[in-house]
Each structure stands twice: as C-alpha cells, then as structure tokens.
Write a structure and sequence with these properties.
This protein is α+β, with helices and mostly antiparallel strands. It contains 9 helices and 11 strands.
Length: 284
C-alpha cells in the first residue's frame, strides 16, 4: 500500500525512478513515475467480463488504443482464459480470478511490478504459467517485487530476498549468497529401493563414511540423523555442511563405496527448506 501510494509512511521516504531516470519521492506527483502494476492478495472484481474489465484497465493505464484488443487476447490465451473472455467473472473459480488479477497487473507492460501472493489458489499448471511469464519479464529487465509465504516460489523466481518479521526487515541478500549459509540438503534418488533388511546397515555405513562432510549442528526438530532414507520414494536426504567441496567429496564416496548397495540416478538440492531454516535462524 505504501509503494502504491495508497497510504503515507509514518517515517522515511519511498523513492522510485521517474521517466527522466531520476529517483523521485512517491509522495510527489505520481504522473512522472515509471509505469507500475499491482496484484493484491485475493483480487476482487466487479461482475463484468474479462474482456470488458481488462479493456477498462488498459484505458486507465493509457495503453495504445490500437493494441488493446491484441494485448488482451494474447494474455488470456497464455493463461488459458481466452474461452472465458465474455463470461461473467462471478462464475470464475478462485484460481481463475487470481490469473485475471495477474493479467491486469502486467497488462500495460509496466516497468515496476508488485505482486502479493501471486500463486495463491492456483493449480500446478497455472503456477508453472506464472513462473514462465515472470521469467519472461525478468529477461525484459522488469523490476518485480513479490510478497509471499511460499518459499519455494521465492527460490524459483527471485534473485534477491528480504526476510520481514513484525514489519521489520531482518535480512536482505542475493538468494545465491544465502544458499550456502548453514546446513544444506542433497536429495539422492535411487534406481531401486534398498532391501528392508539392509536399510539400517546402509545408513550407519553412510554416516561413518560421510562424517567429515555432514552437518554436525543440525536442528533436532528437523531430524535426529544427518541422513534420512525414505523407502516409499527410494531416496536419501543428506544434510551436509554446505561447502561446495564437501558436496563433491560426497558424490565421490557415494559412487565409489556404495556401488554394491544402491545406484543413484539423480541428485538435487532443496532451496526451500534452507530458506525456511534461514528465516527461523534470523527470527530466533
């Protein structure tokens, strides 16, 4: 609301680039500021149709008249709402309204975009579409602010992240700089499950062989052991110390010393759980 200039700050200033390339206090004339788009959490619309509603927004934003219809159709098709463009919005599901809210935020091709929980209420396909479009905007050098409690959403899209607690920013950095702070996880997907009678032996052997590289300060609320095996999905989670060199040694040991026990078909790292741990570390 502060950035949208709907309310005034009790202290401090908010500076945004104007059309002349200079920073300007948003409390001054907003007509000189670069174009901005906003998506509020749980958008609500008049019971119109997407076509009429978006045309109204485009006119408010002074989007070129000869391009309005083409732009609306382009976005509705991308987000699978084209067949609904003349339907009443009152009949839309929560996910459809969320997509419509996102469309109105980017409709006029703004330079600065604010998104509050943009993937709330969306199914997996729609979330992928949102991520794809946000990556396209990044390639176009747009500036995007995302407020979200879904840390996987942040880790997949954002380049920088700020943790906010009780209205105060407690940490701000590039997400890649945060990635190796504290504990890290390696997910190891196995070709076949480990025989039940061998699980305890294999885990004990893994902990012994990988001991120099494992996280010895792991949060007991996460796990008691630095290596966890999940039989149903045939995968290991290895909690290591976060050093890139350690990760390389772990890969070598898994391939050399455990060839007779299992075959690893893929490795991956979860930024989401790490961000959650970082956030909890900061507020504690």
């Amino acid at each position: 609301k502060l950035m949208a200039n709907l309310i005034r700050p009790s202290s401090g200033n908010i500076l945004i680039k104007n059309q002349h390339g200079n920073l300007q206090d948003i409390s001054n004339s907003s007509s000189d500021l670069i174009s901005m788009g906003f998506l509020i959490d749980i958008p609500v619309f008049y019971d119109s149709t997407p076509k009429n509603l978006l045309k109204y927004y485009a006119q408010l934003y002074q989007y070129p008249k000869d391009k309005i219809n083409q732009r609306i159709d382009e976005l509705l098709k991308f987000f699978d709402l084209f067949d609904w463009k003349r339907k009443r919005i009152a009949k839309f599901s929560k996910g459809m309204r969320q997509k419509l809210g996102f469309i109105q935020a980017v409709l006029h091709e703004p330079e600065l975009i604010y998104l509050d929980e943009p993937q709330s209420g969306l199914d997996p396909k729609a979330r992928i579409k949102i991520r794809q479009y946000l990556n396209t905007l990044k390639e176009q050098k747009k500036t995007i602010f995302i407020a979200s409690h879904m840390l996987h959403e942040i880790s997949e899209i954002c380049e920088k992240i700020a943790f906010i607690n009780n209205g105060e920013m407690i940490k701000y950095d590039k997400i890649e700089e945060m990635k190796f702070i504290g504990a890290n996880e390696i997910q190891c997907q196995l070709l076949k499950p480990i025989p039940e009678t061998r699980i305890d032996h294999v885990i004990k052997k893994l902990i012994e062989k990988l001991a120099p590289y494992l996280d010895d300060k792991i949060d007991s609320t996460i796990t008691r052991l630095p290596i966890v095996y999940r039989p149903l999905s045939s995968e290991f989670t290895i909690y290591y110390d976060g050093n890139p060199e350690s990760k390389g040694e772990i890969f070598k040991i898994l391939g050399k010393d455990f060839e007779s026990e299992f075959t690893v078909v893929s490795f991956s790292q979860s930024k989401t759980s790490l961000l959650e741990k970082l956030y909890l570390d900061q507020i504690n």
